[in-house]
Write a structure and sequence with these properties.
- The complex is a heterodimer of chains A (about 180) and B (about 110).
- With about 180 residues, chain A is an alpha+beta fold.
- Chain A is built from four helices and eleven strands; from the N terminus they run E-E-E-H-E-E-E-H-E-E-H-E-E-E-H.
- Chain A folds into two domains: about 90 residues, 2-Layer Sandwich (Gyrase A, domain 2), CATH 3.30.1360; about 70 residues, Alpha-Beta Plaits.
- In chain A, strands 1-2-8-11-10-9 form a six-stranded antiparallel β-sheet.
- In chain A, strand 5 and strand 6 form a beta hairpin.
- The longest helix of chain A is centred in the C-terminal third of the chain and has 17 residues.
- Chain B is mainly β.
- Chain B has a single domain, classed as Folate-binding superfamily (Folate-binding fold, 2-Layer Sandwich), CATH 3.30.2270.
- In chain B, a hairpin with a 4-residue loop joins strand 5 and strand 6.
- The longest helix of chain B is centred in the middle third of the chain and has 8 residues.
- The radius of gyration of chain B is 15 Å and the shape is globular.
- The chains are: A alpha+beta (about 180), B mainly beta (about 110).
- At the A-B interface, strand 9 of A face strand 2 of B.
């Protein structure tokens, strides 16, 4: 009988649970790096079924799909439903660049009352609720790795990082979580 | 930690997210194939390197990824102001003697 290949997540089997903090790998999702000028946004928003945010550090969500503002002409799209986002973008004839990065990135969910403290161990940004409200997202650094932070709840963040950095990011988070 | 105002992100961010990118407002000669070696040297290698206020390019490398310009005092390492790439060199005298940090909206001090 033929064996079928099984895709193994970069963080498979890793998790940490401590008092007031939980670290878990996020479920697989399809992701897209989208770059487009202002004039293309209406057509792309229509094709993707959500309005691409234009304000710095904001996000837009629609069902299982989300668009994170990364720069004035750059967005990170995450679809936990696994939709092929490049196909959706191709329906828009407006000028844009869409690169599938589903397997370049992986994500870690950090939750619990000590979330800000644990993230603060490696991230120099202000993470208080006033400066980084629910729904805010930003590219930044965590330790030596570049990450995208997305606050999904008052005490929960999603950290998107490159899969090759994920072991380092998870280990640093776990080290910080053990010390809070 | 030093905080730098990014004119594209419209807020102050920690310096770790930024990279310095050399002196600002250096125009590439339009007739670059015709200029003399001395003129090319002046354009390509020679920088002002002043003690005091300098205008520099910075890149928000681990943020929005954009290049922008900043006026910085090389003695105190204080950022006097930042502004979007392509905007003209601001007159710091008019901007309040260097006390302005974040007057970086489009169109402000031209």
């Amino acid at each position: 009988m033929a064996e079928t290949a099984r895709r193994i997540s970069a963080l498979e089997g890793r998790a940490y649970q401590g008092p007031g903090i939980a670290l878990n790998p996020a479920a697989p999702a399809s992701r897209l790096s989208l770059r487009a000028p202002e004039a293309s946004l209406a057509a792309l928003s229509k094709a993707l079924g959500l309005i691409l945010p234009r304000k710095p550090k904001t996000t837009a969500e629609s069902g299982k799909r989300a668009a994170l503002w990364l720069g004035p002409d750059e967005w990170l799209l995450i679809d936990e439903g696994g939709a092929d986002l490049t196909v959706l973008c191709a329906k828009a004839s407006a000028l844009h660049s869409a690169v599938d990065i589903s397997h370049r990135n992986t994500a870690i969910l950090v939750a619990g009352e000590h979330t800000e403290d644990v993230l603060g161990a490696g991230c120099p940004q202000a993470l208080s609720l006033a400066r980084f409200p629910i729904g805010a997202a930003s590219r930044t650094v965590f330790g030596k790795a570049e990450v995208v932070l997305w606050r999904i709840a008052e005490d929960a963040f999603r950290i998107e990082c490159w899969r090759s950095f994920s072991y380092y990011v998870f280990s640093l988070l776990e080290k910080a979580a053990r010390e809070v | 930690m030093l905080l730098i105002h990014c004119p594209y992100c419209e807020e102050e961010r920690p310096e770790l997210e930024f990279r310095h990118a050399g002196e600002a407002h250096i125009a590439r000669p339009e007739n670059i194939a015709e200029i003399s070696d001395e003129e090319f040297q002046r354009y390509f290698f020679i920088r002002a390197n002043p003690k005091g206020v300098t205008f520099e390019r910075w890149r928000h490398m681990h943020g929005c990824g954009r290049f922008f310009n900043a006026a910085r005092d090389t003695v105190s390492d204080r950022f006097l102001m930042t502004y979007m790439a392509g905007e003209p060199k601001p007159d710091l005298g008019k901007a309040g003697g260097g006390a302005v940090r974040s007057a970086s909206r489009k169109g402000t001090p031209a």
